[in-house]
């Protein structure tokens, strides 16, 4: 977390091997990556890191399946295996039935889930998400956070940048940035459970809907 | 990424902007089409010239009576026949490697039945057919007895045969040339128009003695003089040296002093033809220049559109880099896209070029020659243009900084 311009994205780009530090070193999974060549970094990104962006960054006019399979294309995986793995990953995020849809035919939440499936498809060491809920409404944000939490519980490391305390409360560890510096590092023993909140919300929404329905019913009679 | 998947990717990207892709290809289409038409027409003209040179015979010298070298004063020599049958005989005797064929020329009215025709009469020896490389379509050549005895026999050209006989068979028919009856013993093969546009089939050949005594008449009947002598030099000979030997021999026979002008003219016909060939080559070079200009303009169009495309797709490039695309993957993607654009343009251009060539061939009646080589050449050109003009935009894409590319709006 941190205010705008505090260096969150810069830090993230470094973690993601998109940018190289001007000083210091970066060791990722026992490998020193801070002074690799651009093409070597590309391979590291492909194999070890999954990216999720605020603006989804899906390829337009390309099916969800192909979008998810894209990292595997650069990993040199054959078409058949590529499609199988991409479809399995779409299933993980609950979008197997949308495999043939193009981004324009999907809602924001669905697009972000496709993007998460794309980040996961190469079985990376960590997922980097820069404000992944920034373009989504609060309920969809909650759905995405529930997905992240369930992945995290299965052992996936997820680094997520956000402005909102509402999003940060689902994290087990919170880093705060200020003016390009890391100023705070807190462990959270019991983060909130997004899935539980989601269930609670839909329960209350259902009650509310039933209430309006019965009201309408009584008005008619 | 495999070439097949790069190609699929390129086709999809091009299909998104169909109209833009088509317009971009236009330059290549026109350029390649022009190359195809140019080569087809040029090769056709070349083939025609070659054929006529071959029909004329290789290494042919034409000797004509009278000097042409000294300007107006001596023009009168044209009618003064300075060459003779004896000159031709001497050439054949002294220089065994060459064949000299004298010819006497005149014109006459020819009649067969109700039809009549005015044509050119050549009095020749049997060598004449050999030297000019004329073949018979039917019949036979003159026999020695006909040569010595001024036999009333003749060979006619295709045009004469058509004019006099129509569809009837001319062989062994008797025609009247200046009222003298002649038996047609043969018909020459068709040779078509000469490079100068004259009909080479409108003529009659007869033994030189016959022509002199019975048809052309006048004072030449008494002399042995002739208007022209054709000389065939062997293929492998040094034509310049042979030419000089022929000149020297004739000057000696005509008793010309050193310093005195020739009283005949000597022309090497292969050289005349070669000059004509050269001028048709100039035309081809001119067309090639036009075609290459339009190819270059087409290439610049491709480069322009690829640069636009790279800018438009900066985020896509950033994303691809983020998920693991290496420099060469991006370079390959955009290079293949540019080459696909130019190759498709090239293929359309080839199709249009072939169509246009065939149309020109049938409408203008020109000879055209479509060779697989020229089509391959055009395709190779299109490919090279795609690589050349696609490289810079592709490299620009490949060198983008992923962070900046992802942030690009
Ligand atoms: N530690 C640092 N070293 C060098 N430059 C830094 C550092 N931290 C931040 N910057 C610079 O500050 C600018 C803004 O940083 P960055 O984009 O990372 O901010 P942010 O926290 O992601 O902001 P926002 O919340 O608006 O996305 C960048 O141009 C970056 O180069
Ligand atoms: Mg940021």
Care to give the gist of this entry?
The complex is a heterodimer of chains A (221) and B (409). With 221 residues, chain A is of the alpha/beta class. Chain A contains 8 helices and 7 strands, in the order H-E-E-H-E-H-H-H-E-H-E-H-E-E-H.
Structure description:
The complex is a heterodimer of chains A (221) and B (409). By secondary structure, chain A is α/β, with parallel strands linked by helices. Chain A is built from eight helices and seven strands. In chain A, a hairpin with a 2-residue loop joins strand 6 and strand 7. In chain A, helix 3 runs parallel beside helix 5 and helix 4 crosses helix 5. The termini of chain A are far apart. With 409 residues, chain B is an alpha+beta fold. Chain B has two domains: 178 residues, no CATH class; 173 residues, no CATH class. In chain B, 56% of the residues lie in helices and 17% in strands. Chain B is built from 13 helices and twelve strands. Chain B has a six-stranded mixed barrel with strand order 3-4-9-6-8-7. A two-stranded antiparallel ribbon of chain B has the order 2-10. The radius of gyration of chain B is 33 Å and the shape is elongated. About 3% of the residues of chain B have low confidence. The chains are: A alpha/beta (221), B alpha+beta (409). Bound molecules: adenosine-5'-triphosphate and magnesium ion. Magnesium ion (MG) binds next to helix 1 of chain A.
Number of strands of chain A: 7
Estimate the helix proportion of chain A, in percent.
40-55%
Number of helices of chain A: 8
Low confidence ranges of chain B: 68-78
Query: What is the name of the CATH topology of chain A?
Result: Rossmann fold
Number of strands of chain B: 12
Radius of gyration of chain B: 33 Å
Report the span from N to C terminus of chain A: 54 Å
Question: How are strands sequenced across the largest beta sheet of chain B?
Answer: 3-4-9-6-8-7
Radius of gyration of chain A: 20 Å
**Major sheet strand order of chain A:** 3-4-5
Number of domains of chain B: 2
SS class of chain B: alpha+beta
Give the topology string of chain B: H per helix, E per strand: HHEEHEEHEHEHEEEHEEHEHHHHH
């Amino acid at each position: 977390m941190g205010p705008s311009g505090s260096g969150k994205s810069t830090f993230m780009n470094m973690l993601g091997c998109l940018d190289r530090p001007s000083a210091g070193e970066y060791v990722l999974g026992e490998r020193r990556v801070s002074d690799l060549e651009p093409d070597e970094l590309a391979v590291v990104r492909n194999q070890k890191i999954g990216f999720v962006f605020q603006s989804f960054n899906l390829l337009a006019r390309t099916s969800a399946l192909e979008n998810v399979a894209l990292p595997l294309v650069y990993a040199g995986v054959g078409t058949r295996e590529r499609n199988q793995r991409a479809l399995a990953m779409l299933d993980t995020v609950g979008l197997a039935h949308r495999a043939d849809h193009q981004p324009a035919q999907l809602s924001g939440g669905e697009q972000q889930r496709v993007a998460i499936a794309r980040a996961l498809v190469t079985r990376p060491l960590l997922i980097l998400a820069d404000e992944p809920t920034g373009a989504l409404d609060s309920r969809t944000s909650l759905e995405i956070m529930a997905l992240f939490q369930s992945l995290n519980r299965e052992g996936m490391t997820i680094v997520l940048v956000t402005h909102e305390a509402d999003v940060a409360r689902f994290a087990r560890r919170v880093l705060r940035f200020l003016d390009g510096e890391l100023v705070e590092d807190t462990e959270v023993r019991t983060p909130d459970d997004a899935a539980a909140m989601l269930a609670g919300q839909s329960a209350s929404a259902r009650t509310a809907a039933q209430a309006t329905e019965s009201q309408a019913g009584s008005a008619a009679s | 990424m495999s070439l097949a998947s790069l190609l699929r990717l390129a086709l999809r990207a091009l299909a998104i902007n169909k109209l833009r892709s088509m317009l971009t290809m236009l330059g290549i289409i026109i350029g390649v089409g022009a190359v195809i038409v140019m080569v087809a027409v040029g090769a056709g003209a070349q083939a025609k010239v070659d054929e006529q040179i071959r029909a004329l015979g290789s290494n042919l010298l034409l000797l004509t009576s009278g000097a042409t070298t000294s300007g107006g004063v001596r023009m009168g020599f044209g009618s003064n026949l300075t060459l003779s049958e004896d000159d031709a005989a001497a050439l054949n005797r002294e220089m065994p490697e060459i064949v000299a064929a004298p010819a006497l020329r005149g014109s006459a009215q020819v009649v067969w039945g109700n039809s009549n025709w005015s044509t050119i009469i050549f009095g020749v020896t049997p060598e004449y057919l050999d030297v000019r490389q004329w073949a018979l379509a039917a019949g036979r050549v003159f026999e020695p007895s006909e040569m010595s005895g001024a036999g009333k026999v003749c060979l006619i050209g295709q045009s004469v045969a058509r004019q006099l006989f129509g569809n009837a068979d001319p062989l062994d028919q008797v025609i009247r040339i200046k009222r003298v009856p002649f038996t047609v013993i043969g018909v020459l093969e068709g040779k078509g128009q000469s490079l100068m546009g004259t009909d080479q089939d409108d003529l009659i050949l007869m033994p030189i003695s016959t022509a002199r005594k019975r048809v052309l008449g006048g004072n030449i009947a008494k002399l042995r003089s002739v208007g022209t002598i054709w000389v065939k030099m062997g293929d492998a000979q040094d034509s310049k040296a042979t030419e000089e030997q022929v000149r020297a021999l004739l000057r000696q026979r005509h008793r010309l002093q050193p310093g005195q002008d020739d009283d005949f003219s000597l022309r090497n016909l292969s050289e005349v033809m070669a000059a004509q060939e050269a001028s048709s080559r100039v035309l081809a070079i001119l067309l090639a220049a036009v075609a290459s200009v339009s190819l270059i303009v087409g290439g610049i169009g491709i480069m322009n559109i690829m640069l636009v495309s790279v800018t438009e797709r900066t985020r896509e490039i950033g994303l691809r880099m983020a998920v693991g695309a290496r420099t060469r993957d991006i370079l390959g993607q955009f290079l293949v896209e540019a080459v696909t654009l130019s190759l498709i343009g090239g293929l359309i251009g080839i199709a249009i070029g072939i169509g246009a060539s065939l149309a020109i061939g049938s409408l203008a009646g020109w000879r055209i020659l479509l060779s697989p080589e020229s089509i391959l050449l055009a395709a190779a050109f299109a490919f090279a243009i795609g690589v050349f003009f696609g490289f810079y935009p592709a490299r620009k894409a490949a060198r983008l900084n992923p962070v900046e590319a992802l942030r690009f709006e």
